[in-house]
């Protein structure tokens, strides 16, 4: 398979990932018998690993590692989770390849999961800390959507800041079944706790408004 | 399909060490980027603040009316602009929204949604526009349930389906070309006549399943869980009829992204920021350029030109107000 990174891109990504503070681990779940974009995702993450000594990558066949898959709630393939330097899962998950525009939400997650300070105003931090019930955020994207990475970044930041929040990117074209189930015909489409919807890329405040609404219901 | 559109950049430390900027450009589209390029070359302390670089270029598949760069994808043109700025080492503060702009004692305070506050002698507001809505019944109900404003984002969802494109300018015509690769049938509905470039309309000859209704107005969007069709009015004979469709791509122009500075300065009835011939708003030191202003003809090359003119005017302003 042709490489994703040319010299220029590799240099650029190496420089950007210089911001990583501590090591992180990516656990990528695939189907060794094959699945749409499993090979491509494995290769892309492998090329990322080559650009930074702070990235650990584990490739797991879902069928051979059912307990691990269950632990991280893996239902789609390819899917990967990101763990911090202590091996803790903070609820940051990607379903499908983070290529195209979505590479930006992936890079952002790598840097922020490594311990790079998250710049969030105190007023928002206070609201996030008050979330005591489980929240699941699904962000449906396409790789050609320029407005999607911002939505994914916000969802993942919320997950990193509160253990009750889990956030997952879902590449809609790779997973037409779940996309149809959630009636996705435009992206980014953000689903909070299976019911509450946000359209388009929204500031963190809008996410919090909707999360608080879902928890009041 | 898997090309990598890398926009992530570390926030440079210069943002922590610069107490007062000469100019903060708010917006990462063509107007703002060219203004930053011009003022950086002049030696001003300038930086760009943008949620994302490229602005509306990312909503455009192909650009073919930018002199010297034929047939380039919008995202690639955005990357060309970005690389040019990086070659000149223009500081970029990306990935965050501006929460507020305030002025006190001739200093502007730009507050970001991450809590950072940056200070500057002048501001160039170049935040462009966002897609205009039809403002008809059903539009909000079926948003992202058939109704879309971004062809590059959403076209693949309409593979083998019937779609409508609303609009008559270049954006609408480009949307037709984008959708031709996916949709079973495309119907263009526009309330007047085509305004799009003839060179784009010529390409329609190769699209087999395309129907065009000009002088036709969309009255409402109908459906259940998803949109299923629209009611239209044929303005030539006042007849109403229903057209079935799974999707509606609305490409009828832009609304200025001006809400952030509307409390500070004058805007027109469309919400566009009023600027004088020096691109200054009614608030001294607050400039605006590009699609967010009252200037007609929202085009990339015009925004770029306006950005350059605004930059030169800002330099003059700083000379006379320092």
Unreliable residue runs of chain B: none
In the CATH hierarchy, the third-tier topology of the largest domain in chain B is known as FAD/NAD(P)-binding domain
> How far apart are the termini of chain A?
49 Å
The CATH homologous superfamily of the largest domain in chain A is termed Glutaredoxin
Low-confidence stretches of chain A: none
Distance between the termini of chain B: 51 Å
The secondary-structure element order of chain B is HEHEEEHEEEEEEHEHEHEEEEEEEH
Mean pLDDT score of chain B: 95
**Radius of gyration of chain B using CA atoms only:** 21 Å
CATH superfamily of the largest domain in chain B, please?
FAD/NAD(P)-binding domain
Give the biggest sheet of chain B: 7 strands, mixed
Question: What is the level 1 CATH name of the largest domain in chain B?
Answer: Alpha Beta
Describe the protein in words.
The complex is a heterodimer of chains A (217) and B (322). By secondary structure, chain A is an alpha/beta fold. Chain A folds into 2 domains: 7-113, Glutaredoxin (3-Layer(aba) Sandwich), CATH 3.40.30; 122-216, Glutaredoxin (3-Layer(aba) Sandwich). Chain A is built from 8 helices and 8 strands. Chain A has helices at residues 7-16, 38-51, 66-71, 103-113, 122-129, 148-161, 176-181, 204-216; strands at residues 24-30, 55-61, 79-83, 89-95, 135-141, 165-171, 189-192, 196-199. In chain A, α4 (103-113) packs parallel to α6. The longest helix of chain A is centred in the N-terminal third of the chain and has 14 residues, at 38-51. The radius of gyration of chain A is 16 Å and the shape is globular. The mean pLDDT of chain A is 95. By secondary structure, chain B is of the alpha/beta class. The mean pLDDT of chain B is 95. Chain B is elongated. Chain B has helices at residues 14-17, 30-42, 74-87, 151-154, 170-180, 198-201, 300-321, and strands spanning 21-26, 46-50, 62-63, 72-73, 92-94, 98-104, 107-112, 117-125, 129-131, 147-148, 162-166, 185-189, 210-213, 216-223, 227-234, 239-244, 247-250, 254-256, 286-288. In chain B, α2 runs parallel beside α3 (74-87). In chain B, strands 1, 2, 5, 6, 7, 8 and 19 form a 7-stranded mixed β-sheet that branches. A 5-stranded parallel β-sheet of chain B has the order 10-17-11-12-13, covered by helices on one side. Chains A and B meet through α1, α4 and α6 of A and β10 and α4 of B.
